[in-house]
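Our preliminary data section would be incomplete without showing what the modeling component actually yields. Below, a chain of 126 amino acids is followed by its predicted structure, encoded as tokens that our downstream tools consume directly.
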Amino acid sequence: MSALELIRQCRDAGIHLHVRGDRLHVEAPAGSVTAELRQALTEHKVDLLALHAMRARLQAIATSLGIPRAVVDAMPVEELEATAEQATLCEGHLGSNGDPLARSVLVFYLRHLADQPLSKIEGNRP
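Predicted structure:
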């Protein structure tokens, strides 16, 4: 099971995952967190925290650009993961203007999303 599948499984079961610092918190209906699910959450904790960190990074950049928080909040997890992968590939490289390439990619992506209606962004959710 991947981190994305795990997030979908939790969402379908009414389980909410929250990150506080380096801790993953689970808010779930009584009896919905099985031993297998708890094990999967433990195994994928690093990936789940990384996805949260990318969403937080995008939120910070969006705020600095005046892009509403709802744009980032509406991003499907699959797009968030793909964005994180692209940013990771760009880490350590500079753009033609001397700015960090990863940030430039994220700024470009956020500006593109901001031009889309929220219903279109949210419509991409599984």
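Strands lie at 16-20, 23-27. The mean pLDDT is 86. Preliminary results of this kind motivate Aim 1 of the renewal.
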